[in-house]
Amino acid sequence: MNLMISDAGDMPAPDQLFTLRNSSGMAVTISERGAALVSWLAPDRYGRMADVLLGYPDPAGYRDNSVYFGAVIGRWANRIAHGRFVLDGAPRQTVVNDRGNHLHGGPLGFHALRWQGEGEDGEVRLRLVSPDGDAGFPGQVEVGVRYLLDEEGALTIEYEAVADAPTPINLTSHPYFNLNGGMADVGDHMLQVDADHYLSIDATGIPIGVAAVSGTAFDFRRPAAIGARLCWPDAQLRMAGGFDHCFCIRGRVPGQAGELREVAKVTDPGSGRSLRVATTEPGLQLYTGNYLSGVRGRAPRPYARHDGFCLEASAYPNQINSEHAAAVILRPGQVYRQTTVYRIALQ
Amino acid sequence: MSTPKTHRVALLFNANKIFDREVIAGVADYLSSTRSSWDLFLEEDFRLRLPGIEQWQGDGIIADFDDPAVAAALADSRIPVVAVGGSYENEADYPARVPYVATDNFKLIKLAYDHLIEAGLRHFALFSLPEAQGNRWGQEREKAFRALMRRENFEVEIFRGLSTSASSWDEAVQQQIAWLHSLPKPVGIIAVTDARARQLLQACMLAGIAVPEQVALIGIDNDPLARMLTRIPLSSVMQGTHEMGRTAAHLLDQMLHGVRLGGTRILVPPAGINVLTSSKHESTKHPHVMRARHYIRQYACQGIKTDQVAAYVGISRSSLESYFRRELGCSVHDEILRFRLEAATAILARGDCNLVEVALKCGFTSSQYMHLVFKRELGCTPRAYQQRATQDQPESCLPTSTNET
C-alpha cells in the first residue's frame, strides 16, 4: 500500500486529497472535506477498473454536499424527531433541516466541514473539533476517523470521539455505491442483510415501530435484487419512495454496539463485484438513492433515482428519543468508538 | 395470537424442469419465513394437468403461464391467481388483469452477451429452439438477442435446429455441426437453455471444434444436471427463480388477505452468472497451444502425460513446451495439473468425501500427490478446501465469524 497526497479546490484553503492503494490496483481517494470517500477504483471480473462510488466531478463539490456523497456524518447521523430531545432532564433543540426533523448533523454537519487530515503508512487519519453548541448540540466534541485499505480490498473505517459535556452522538459513513461503475442503476444488485427486523417509519422518516421482515419486501435474509423488491406493493416503500429504512442487525442488543462482524452483502451479477459490510453498530440504514434525481455528478448525465445505494451503519434513527437513548449519549471521560468495514471484491 | 387460517393453494408448474422447481423452492422459502399456512396442491409427478382445474375447490393458484393453454384455462378463475412466466417485449403478450412475476428475458440475454463481449469475442450467435406453445420464452430470448445485435451493428445469427427426439437425434446433431462450421470463428454462442447448450457442446466435441477457443458457449438456468453431463464445464446465467417464487407467494398472500393487485407486474433480473471453462475465451493464443489445451481439457482427468499432448498436436514435446512457456508462462505438465486441480475442487465443493476416489477421478496418481498439489497451489489441504467451499454456499446465510475483515 502506498499513499499519495494531492491538493484540490481553490485557494485559500484547498482541501487535501489522500489516496490509499493496494497491489490489486484498487485506489480509494478521501477528501479532507467531510472526511469523504471521493472515489474507489476497483477491478471487475474482467480486470477493468471503474469507480464504484457516486460523487461530484470536482473536489470543490464536496463543500456543498447536499446529498452527503461519501461523507462522514455527525454529530448525529440520520434523524431526530423535530430536532428535539431531553438530555439529563434538560430539553434541547437542534437544527431542523428535513421535513421538520433534524437530519445528518444539519446543513453544516461534519460532512460539510474541513477536517485536518494526514496520511502515512498506508492509512489516513482525519480529525475534527465540533464546538459547544454546534447545530444546537451541547458540549465540545473531538472526533477522529481513520481509514485503512488492505490487500483483500477491505476499507476499514475506525471512529473515535470524546466530549467535554454530555451529548448525543451517532456517526456513520455515507458512500453511495454502484458496483457496476455506473453502467446502469443498482436495481439488479443482489442484496443480503442479516436482519429479522427493521424500523417502520412515518411520512417524515421517523421510526414508529419495530417490524418483522418476514413476508415483506424487507426480507433480505436471502439475496434478492433491489430493483424487483422496489416493485413490491408495500406502503412503507411507497411512502419513502424506495428504501430509506434502518435494519436491526440480528443478535445485537437493540440500540447497542457489539462485536465487529459481517452484516450485509451486495453483489452485482454483471461486473462480478461484491460489497461486504461488517460493523460494530446495531443498525444498518438502507437508502436506495430515492432523492438522487437531477444531482450533477461524475457521470455524463445527472444522476437518476436508484443510481446508487447506501448501507449506513450506525445507531437507530431518533434513538435519542427512545428507550435506548442511554446508549447514544457520550459523557466526559468516555470514548465513542465504531468500526465499519466495506470490502469490495469479486464474487 | 390467533392461528392464521390455512389456505388451499395450487401450484401449477411442470416441475420436471429446473426453472419450475426453483420457483417452487422460492414459494416454499417464503412460506417457511412467514406465519402463512398453505395446503399445497401439486400433481404427484409435479407435472401440470389442466383438465379439472376449474372444479378445484381451493383458495388460490400460482401458475406457470408460459403455456397459453394455462393462461386461457385460468382467465376466468373465481379465485386469486398469480402468474409466473417470461417477460415479453410486446405489452400485449402479457395476460390481462392478473399479477405477473416474470424472469427478465432481455436481461438474461444481455448478461450473457456482455460476458462474451468482455471475453474478447466479436462474432455472436444464438442457439434457440423450435417454436412451440410452451416455450414462448425462447422467442422472447430471440427478440432480445436480435435487438442487442441490431443496437451494436452486429449480424443477427440465430439457429433453432430440431426439437430433441430420439428418432431425429443424428440429424439434429448433423445440422448443429453444419451450423457450427458455417459460423465465423471465434464465435460466442448463447444457448437459450443449458439443455440446449449441452447438446451444442457435444456437437462441438464431435466436430473437433475447440471450446472455448473457437466457440465460447454460455447457457441459461445454471442447471447442475446439464453441467454434470458435459466434459467441459458449462458457463451459465442464473435466473432469479427463487426470488420469483418468493415474490409470487407474497403477491398471492396479499390477495388471500383481500388486497387487490390487478395487473401488478414484477420483472426479476438474473441472479448471477456462473463463469466456467466453456466461455473462458482468450483471444490471442497460438493454434498449437489452443489445440493442446483443447486436448488437456478433455483428458486431463484420465492421467495423460505431456508426450500424449504433443502427439495430439503433432509437434515435438520440446517445441510444445517452448510454445507453452511463451504463451502461458508454464509447462504442459503445469497446465494438466491445473485442470486436475480445477476438477478436484469442483468435486470437493459438492461435498463428495472419499479423497482417494477424488484423486483417481481427477487423474492424480495418488491422494498423497493430490494433497501435495493442493498445499502447493492453494495453500491448504483438500479437506480444508472442502470445508471452506461447503460453508460458503451462495444460498446460505451470512457467516457469523468475526474475522471477516
Whole-angstrom Rg of chain B: 24 Å
Mean pLDDT of chain A: 95
Approximate helicity band of chain B: 40-55%
Distance between the termini of chain A: 23 Å
N-to-C SSE string of chain A, H for helix and E for strand: EEEEEEEEEEEEEEEEEEEEHHEEEEEEE
Strand content of chain A: 35-45%
Cα-to-Cα separation, first versus last residue of chain B: 42 Å
What's the oligomerization state? heterodimer
Envelope shape of chain B: globular
Number of helices of chain B: 15
**Percentage of residues in DSSP E strands of chain B:** 5-15%
Poorly predicted residue ranges of chain A: none
| Broad shape of chain A | globular
Which chains have the largest interface?
A: A-B, 43 and 44 residues
The largest β sheet of chain A comes out as: 9 strands, antiparallel
Number of helices of chain A: 2
Order of helices and strands of chain B: EHEEHEEHEHEHEHEHEHEEHHHHHHH
As a percent range, the share of helical residues of chain A equals: under 10%
Question: Can you put this structure into words, describing what you see?
Answer:
The complex is a heterodimer of chains A (347) and B (405). The model of chain A has no long low-confidence stretch (mean pLDDT 95). Chain A is mainly beta and 347 residues long. Chain A is globular. In chain A, 55% of the residues are buried. Chain A has 2 helices and 27 strands. Chain A has a 9-stranded antiparallel β-sheet. Chain B is α/β, with parallel strands linked by helices. Chain B is built from 15 helices and 12 strands. Chain B has helices at residues 18-33, 68-74, 105-118, 136-151, 169-182, 194-207, 224-228, 241-256, 287-299, 306-313, 317-328, 332-350, 355-361, 367-378, 382-391; strands at 6-12, 37-41, 60-64, 81-86, 100-103, 124-127, 158-159, 187-191, 215-220, 235-238, 265-268, 272-274. Chain B has a 6-stranded parallel β-sheet with strand order 2-1-3-4-5-11, sandwiched between helices. A 6-stranded mixed β-sheet of chain B has the order 7-6-8-9-10-12, with helices on both faces. In chain B, α1 crosses α8, α9 (287-299) packs across α10 and α12 crosses α15. In chain B, 43% of the residues are buried. Mean pLDDT of chain B is 88; it is low at 394-405. Chain A binds chain B through residues 45-46, 48, 150, 154, 156, 187-188, 190, 192, 194, 214-217, 219, 221-225, 227-228, 231-233, 251, 259-265, 267, 269-270, 272, 276, 278, 341, 343, 347, and chain B through 29-30, 33-36, 107, 111, 114, 118-119, 238, 240, 242-243, 246-247, 250-251, 253-254, 259, 261, 264-273, 275, 394-395, 397-402, 404-405.
